[in-house]
Amino acid sequence: MSDEPGAEGTRKFHRNTFDRIDPERRAMILRVAMAEFAAKGFSATGINELARKAGISIGSLYSYFASKEDLFLAVIDIGSETLGREISEIDPAAGFFASFESLLWKARAAADRYPELNQIYLDSTTQGMSSLAARLSNRLEAVTAELYRRMFEAGKASGEIRPDVDSGLAAFCLDNLVVMFQFAYSGDYYKDRMRIMTGLSDGEDIDDGRLVACIVDMARRSFGARP
Known about the structure:
The protein is mostly helical. The protein is 70% helix and 0% strand. Helix 6 runs parallel beside helix 9 and helix 8 packs across helix 9 (167-183). The longest helix has 26 residues, at 133-158. The protein is globular. Mean pLDDT is 89; it is low at 1-9.
């Protein structure tokens, strides 16, 4: 990873030379990288072919990024920023279960709106990405973890969530539901898995509203305040 500081004291994954090229060219290089990583996965993506499709020399690409890993992490940063924008629209003050339902619907919309980012995220969770696991999880999961922290804090303060609930463990359980829900619309295996589990016939679509309501009801029964 580059040790050059980025905005607001953070680290960035590209060299300073990348900042100096035309913005449209920067965006095009990242679009090509995103498409290649989504289609082939990290390991199978060839840096030479990626540079060719981006219309630049391999030397130029390495003058912008120190390694394929850094280019991949730069693409992951796009996903992290996109996730942050979407999550910033959820207000925990609206109520815990209303916020959780909003998160589920945003996950559903993201599966359609950002298919390449979703595929990259799915691939990032495999053991084949273990060498980058810590760097990936820190970029992708921290934003959601902070949202859950605020949701549980507000939920307990309002009496919507039981005071004995372990917020961290509950957040982990709920986010696993959200991740699997999003994966069910992102990859063929998980789409087939949802079809098999729910008893859907080939070509039959699941009722998204019923599925979201089922997940929210499960969360309410598990963590909600008892009458």
